[in-house]
User: Fold this.
Amino acid sequence: MTARRTLIAGNWKMNGLSADGVALASGLADKMKAAGAVDFDMLVCPPAGLISKVVDAVAGSGMHVGGQDCHMNEKGAHTGDTSAALLKDLGCSYAIVGHSERRTDHAETDAIVAAKAAAAQAQGLIAVICIGETEAQRDAGQTLDVNGSQIAGSVPEGSTAANTVIAYEPVWAIGTGRTPTSAEVQEVHAFIRGELAKKIGADEAAKTRILYGGSMNPKNAAELLALADVDGGLIGGASLKVDDFWTVAQSA
Ligand code: PEP
Assistant:
């Protein structure tokens, strides 16, 4: 089996002001420093306006900081957007793209997500490309089809295990406290790896980290993270408290 380093990623979404963000980041950085060598990567993705403060707060801890989105263009007349170049400049090493909340709230299509992922990769960032079916799609038996077509459409040319992470996030599991069964998660992850192999080749697909996201928490993390094709988690609610997020990370 190809060794893949576990990635524990926190998506803070639109939560926190300066003091909260710095306290959360510093609390996690202290845990990381006290732990010494750990066998997982830890990433936090704060709101864009907090990135600089969080980068400063985690300095020297080994933690990574990422954006929650980036624009597909390098720069220009795109009011309110953030470029991948600016994320990189501020100290980010990752950018989430295609989160279901962006796909829904901002009508982001697979083609837009692929362009954003390519923009992130072009700046040397690792693109965390989110995919996942809605509840209606799952009920209609379309889970594999939907995730397969999102892999085909959202993963840009030039993607490799080094510049890409996939996050499988069933939309109906995000923020709801509901998760698929472990068998269902493993089935979808193994399927995603197979679809990824068609896109980037079997060798790269075998090395690419596929995260599970959707109500991962301190209680269910160990079981989910132990699954063969689950290489980490993308965590929303449970990433907003130092102890919860640290417990999830330690379950890796
Ligand atoms: C997310 O939004 O990426 C997420 C997984 O949220 P939660 O953990 O709160 O379900």
In short: Residues 11, 169, 174-175, 213-216, 234-238 surround phosphoenolpyruvate (CB under 6 Å). The chain has eleven helices and eight strands.
